[in-house]
Amino acid sequence: MNNPRPKATWSQSKIWGVCQHSQKSKLLSDISARLWFTYRRKFSPIGGTGPSSDAGWGCMLRCGQMMLAQALICRHLGRDWNWERQKEQPKEYQRILQCFLDRKDCCYSIHQMAQMGVGEGKSIGEWFGPNTVAQVLKKLALFDEWNSLAVYVSMDNTVVIEDIKKMCHTLPLSAETAAESPPESLNASTQSKGPSACSPAWKPLLLIVPLRLGINQINPVYVDAFKECFKMPQSLGALGGKPNNAYYFIGFLGDELIFLDPHTTQTFVDTEENGTVDDQTFHCLQPPQRMNILNLDPSVALGFFCKEEKDFDSWCSLVQKEILKENLRMFELVQKHPSHWPPFVPPAKPEVTTTGAEFIDSTEQLEEFDLEEDFEILSI
């Protein structure tokens, strides 16, 4: 065809321009670099007696895993990292992948997500909506000390800058140590290191914005703003799809959304004797699928990753310029915590006798968490 092709835009775009034949391999490389999580079978029963496959119900959980995995890749390997088949990968990559294996001792496994969903009012084996999976990831991240992410899930279509900065600002280890020392030691250490010694550090941010962009179908007035989000360098894409069919959207081509599809059932893969994981089934080597944006169910969740505070400040500027200019805004960005909301308290790990994935070994241990309202579940 001689007609010019529409522009292809990808979340965290490495390639943004006319999608010509010469760029096809680069586009496919960008797709294959992402971790692709699908239905699996023959893993250990969830909860000991539950399902040993998530086929038919776990697609939104898998999409949540894909979004989070992309954030971890950006955190440890950088936005421009590429995966190559049959090539030895960095140790950080292997460690990221092992966070998502289908075992109860892996922090973001299907086991952990399904059981944490019980605290969100979802039975094991029940389908999740975008907001539910966001709340589950927020709570599981509290037990993940290696990645040390701050996960913020917006409420009432509103992102509060003050709350995010309160959650992400942490004292450096030197400052925390000094704070526990006697006054003499505190004065000596701060004087020797200068005024920047106790300046707050930034905890890498995974920002998830659950939205409902219509009643029964997406309102066309939101389409341009929705696509604009994929252009932002902080973008991780979006969770959404059709009723009871979830997809991980990673970009768009004209009026078509590009997505990774979890609806393929593969056999459980575990670590090998040398401690690594055979990753060949965790990358999509086929061209991604597409769907018209107007066929999207209105319940979605946008994802963004801000490794440093300057990334978040840049994101706020982009939102003010591209999203808040609309008469009917897709979501709001405010500086101060709304006075009519309950006070914001940064989430903290509950006091338990075990840590990490071992914590969620039965649904009885979920009482530490408050039930979050899942206001935007996709419905038939």
Automatic annotation (TrEMBL):
GO BP, sorted A to Z: aggrephagy; autophagosome assembly; lipid metabolic process; mitophagy; piecemeal microautophagy of the nucleus; protein processing; protein transport
UniProt keyword Transmembrane helix, yes or no: no
Reactions listed under catalytic activity: [protein]-C-terminal L-amino acid-glycyl-phosphatidylethanolamide + H2O = [protein]-C-terminal L-amino acid-glycine + a 1,2-diacyl-sn-glycero-3-phosphoethanolamine
Peptidase C54 catalytic domain: residues covered: 25-317
Subcellular location: Cytoplasm
Keywords per UniProt: Autophagy, Cytoplasm, Hydrolase, Lipid metabolism, Protease, Protein transport, Thiol protease, Transport, Ubl conjugation pathway
One GO MF term attached to the UniProt entry: protein-phosphatidylethanolamide deconjugating activity
Polar residues bias spans: 184-194
EC number: 3.4.22.-
Record-linked InterPro entries: ATG4_LIR, Papain-like_cys_pep_sf, Peptidase_C54, Peptidase_C54_cat
Annotated region (Disordered), positions in chain: 178-198
Transmembrane segments: none
Example of a GO cellular component annotation carried by this entry: cytoplasm
Family: Belongs to the peptidase C54 family.
Described function: Cysteine protease that plays a key role in autophagy by mediating both proteolytic activation and delipidation of ATG8 family proteins.
Protein's UniProt name: Cysteine protease
Organism for this UniProt entry: Tursiops truncatus
Classification lineage: Eukaryota, Metazoa, Chordata, Craniata, Vertebrata
Gene name in the database record: ATG4A
